[in-house]
Amino acid sequence: MAHFGDLQNAIYRDGAAGRRPRFPLTPDDLERAARGVMSDAAWAYVAGGAGTERTMRANTEAFERRRLVPRMLREVVGRDLTTELFGRRIAAPLLTAPIGALGLVHPEPELAVAAVTARLGVGAVITTMAQAPLEHVAAAAPEGLRWYQLYWPADDEVAESMVRRAEAAGYGAIVVTLDTWTLGWRPRDLARGSSPFLAAIGLANHLTDPVFRSKLAAPPEISHQAMRAAVDAALGIFGRPSLTWQDLSLLRQWTSLPVVVKGVCHPDDARAAVDAGMDGIIVSNHGGRQVDGARAALDCLADVADAVGERTTLLFDSGIRCAADVVVALALGARAVLLGRPWVHGLALGGADGIDHVLRHLLAELDLTLALCGHSTPATLDRTTLGP
Ligand code: FNR
Questions:
Q1: Which residues are bridge partners to 317 per DSSP?
Q2: Residue of the CA atom closest to atom 23 of ligand 1
């Protein structure tokens, strides 16, 4: 039986033949190498967080405080990392997080991540703020598990149109990001005065949306001024601050897909999401990019799991850097995790090959970590896997 961990032997065999892995192996080395190939503007945007960035640091420090307790002699020969999410089984409890404006880093970020995740059998959450229209992303890897991440605009007709497009294009769920109805205060971008969106980066879904376009005075393609007006219109409707839990019921009229809310940290918000009929919750603080001083996302996970873990599908992101982090999050109650910045580092270093490198190595390490901790499947992880 083939396991993700078999990659380790393949790497040693390659090494014996004089071939080394093309990109760095540890998260820190990968990040440093990515820094070396990214523009200053792209680096500021991807690496930056809100305010003093203490929440961004807290997210990874929270993992530093958790330790696994390995268990022995538990017959871990035939491992199975597959995980079911809303009736669909993926190869491991892993999805890539939605990351917007990556046109700063690569010409085809979503096409690359959709193709690689489909090949590996894991999931991809595709951002609203994409470089390619969501239909092109679907066509790049029709068989893959893709979810569409919605930034709910201040125009419900445009929101509805995007949701309907995603369902028509075969996306498996709608992920509504709740924590970013406006951007957090991000000094690295502010110091440069640089916003990717003003340069029309990440607006492909808007510029191809029939409802959005029907509201423009002129098609964006016809002139520089028309494009400027379209960009202003897209940014003008970014985020709907008036959105309430009740409004989420609109999604039920627009789509039959499962709906997942992203950005929940408080147990009461988690209960509100379940009461509003949401199918899943992503515990996340947006990688520390929204509320400086917010609690580490991992510290929120156990509280949210205690509040609603039995009643919903819980997912987690913010600070996942290595396999041990994945195991910790699963042990605390997440069904699956989203990998954020590290896949972007891979993208910067080697496009699709770079993402493939990051994900395959993470999956190999996850397989070995689970097995060495005495687990054949993520399903048996629980809090007893963690030290006191
Ligand atoms: C994000 N994130 C994000 N989330 C979302 O719902 N839609 C988006 O378009 C974006 N865009 C985005 C851009 C960049 C550069 C980053 C770093 C993050 C948040 C993302 O989905 C995820 O929550 C975080 O990346 C998790 O934090 P770490 O693990 O990357 O630190």
A1: none
A2: 286
